[in-house]
Amino acid sequence: MPQIIDGKAISATIKDELKIKVEELSAKGIKVCLAVIQVGNDPASSVYVGNKKKACAYIGIDSLAYELPEETTQEELLKLIKELNDKEEVNGILVQLPLPKHIDEDEIIRAIDPKKDVDGFHPQSVGALCIGQPGFVSCTPAGIIQLLKRSDIEIAGKECVVIGRSNIVGKPMALLLLRENGTVTVAHSKTKNLKETAKRADILVVAVGKPKMITREYVKEGAVVIDVGIHRNESNKLCGDVDYDDVAPVCSAITPVPGGVGPMTIAMLMHNCVEAGDIR
Ligand code: NDP
Ligand 1 centre from 229 Cα, in Å? Predict the structure, then answer.
């Protein structure tokens, strides 16, 4: 049977480490504060925002919640971000995505001070990652690196295949694996021979957004399989982009859904907030 990579346990360990770090900062008179902005009341976003506030409370990070109505204009949102950029006591600013259609998400992300960009979505943060300079890293891929490292899975020299090239998962994932000295291939919807490409992987990261698309035909015997996808199936149960039951018997390690990559995203957001407080 493969090693089941326990994201729930690893994220709990990271949160406990961060709690100690926040206590140490607090003893030096440094408070950590995250501002969370939600526009509208999309139920999924409300759950994510609620989970982020809970994680802040557990670790000892102050959180400021801005729950704005759906009709909020671009100018009003930009004004709030500017105020939060200027507020010294705020270390991190998070705008819950997706935003209502009348708001230009790219402009909003660009308005956040890169020093407070704890989601790691600002072009300056992405550019810094690209050229190996310090900056905040997108939380889901950063969490995957932690999952691999804390499960004693070597990345250096390995064939790594990332399926998916989104700005928040696939591309930063590829850059991080490269930073860890993996040999990286990025596959996407136009990739020819996806099965053969995926089968080259020692480490296969799947972020396609298609429930159970990846079966054992895509997986080399003994590969490590990281499943980023989250979906609800017909019976309202969570599943990933990987067909877990089919793939688990052929791989050496795999992340389950739920309990794999998902819990790491919030843990890494908390990590970025603490870092933002520490470097202030
Ligand atoms: P996107 O929809 O933005 O990107 C999907 C990527 O997959 C695209 O690059 C697309 O290619 C590629 N793709 C789609 N279909 C195929 C195909 N048939 N063959 C090969 N490649 C394909 O998704 P995200 O990156 O935002 O998210 C991916 C998944 O991860 C989703 O299920 C999402 O819910 C989940 N997720 C989970 C998180 C967590 O915390 N666990 C956080 C973020 C996302 P192309 O570019 O050519 O269109």
Answer: 7
Does residue 60 come out as left (phi exceeding 0), alpha (psi in the -120 to 50 range) or beta? left
Q: Which helix (H) or strand (E) holds 119?
A: none
CA-closest residue to ligand 1 atom 35: 229
How confident is the model at residue 3, as a pLDDT?
98
3-state helix, strand, coil in the chain (%, to 5): 45, 15, 40
Q: Which of 276, 267, 18 is nearest to 136 (CA)?
A: 276
Which active-site residues does the annotation give?
52, 96, 119
Residue with CA nearest ligand 1 atom 18: 189
The type of residue at 112 is I
Does the pLDDT of residue 279 top 80, yes or no?
no
What CATH homologous superfamily does 29-113 map to? Leucine Dehydrogenase, chain A, domain 1 (3.40.50.10860)
CA–centroid distance, residue 22 to ligand 1 (Å):
34
Tell me the two tokens of residue 12: 């709990």
Give the position, in ligand 1's atom list, of the atom nearest the Cα of 190.
47
Q: Judging by DSSP bridges, how do beta strands 3-4 and 253-254 pair with one another? A: parallel
From 137, 169, 192, mutation site for ligand 1 pocket: most ligand atoms within 8 A of C-beta = 169
Homologous superfamily of the 139-262 domain (CATH): NAD(P)-binding Rossmann-like Domain (3.40.50.720)
Domain regions of the chain by residue span: 29-113, 139-262
Mean pLDDT of 24-50: 95
Residue among 208, 233, 241, 270 whose CB has most ligand 1 atoms within 8 A, to mutate: 208
Token output for 237:
């149960």
Question: pTM for this structure?
Answer: 0.97
Amino acid at 267: A
Fold identical between 29-113 and 139-262? Answer: yes
Give residues with Cβ within 8 angstroms of 181, minimum separation 6.
155, 156, 157
